[in-house]
Specification:
It is built from eight helices and no strands. The chain has one domain. The mean pLDDT is about 95. The chain is mainly alpha-helical. α3 packs antiparallel against α4. GO terms for molecular function: aspartic-type endopeptidase activity; methyltransferase activity. Keywords: Hydrolase, Membrane, Methyltransferase, Transferase, Transmembrane, Transmembrane helix. Its EC number is 2.1.1.-, 3.4.23.43. Belongs to the peptidase A24 family.
Length: about 190
């Protein structure tokens, strides 16, 4: 393990965390800046230590920490981070065509759930799901249903805490499942 690279990526992650926290504040979804800064730095260092050279989970960590914080606090996944996620994730995907196809499938299925039961899944979850589908597509097609199941388990765990009266945030489950699966790199 290259500890210099781990430390450098951790430092770079703190800078990214500061930037994303500022963007969320600007978008009206303020998050605890120290937690996002430190969390993103630790995530980048951890991903570099566990999966050196795998850019997909690095890109996800740049989004996951601030978006989880925003969704847990505000039950919102602001466009200021969900929309730029598409080109970011596709740009680091080993197979951009498969990433785009997986984005359409995963995002489309979440859109169907949103249309059928709007209170069960918000529009931010749908927008995020497409970008996460692109990341999952870089792993394998089987990562799509696996992520859906894992995300549902995390969301059920959050629901069990009964902290939210107006519905449970689904973004943390989507982000945790996708990040875990991209770190595992299950073969296609």
């Amino acid at each position: 393990m290259n500890w210099g690279a781990v430390a450098a990526m951790g430092a770079a992650g703190t800078c990214v965390g500061a930037g994303t926290a500022k963007l969320l504040n600007w978008a009206g979804a303020a998050v605890p800046v120290p937690a996002v800064v430190v969390g993103t730095g630790v995530a980048w260092a951890g991903v570099t230590a566990v999966a050196p050279g795998n850019l997909t989970p690095i890109a996800l960590a740049a989004l996951a920490v601030p978006l989880v914080a925003a969704d847990l606090r505000h039950r919102r996944l602001p466009d200021v981070l969900t929309l730029p996620a598409y080109p970011l994730v596709v740009a680091v995907a080993p197979d951009p065509a498969r990433a785009l196809g997986a984005a359409a499938v995963f995002g489309g299925l979440h859109l169907l759930v949103h249309v059928a039961a709007p209170r069960a899944m918000g529009a931010g979850d749908v927008k995020l799901a497409g970008a996460l589908g692109a990341a999952l597509g870089s792993v394998s097609w089987l990562a799509l249903p696996a992520a859906a199941v894992l995300a549902a388990v995390v969301t059920a765990g959050l629901a069990a805490t009964r902290l939210w009266r107006d519905g449970v945030p689904h973004g943390p489950g989507l982000l945790a499942a996708t990040t875990a699966l991209t770190l595992l790199r299950v073969p296609p």
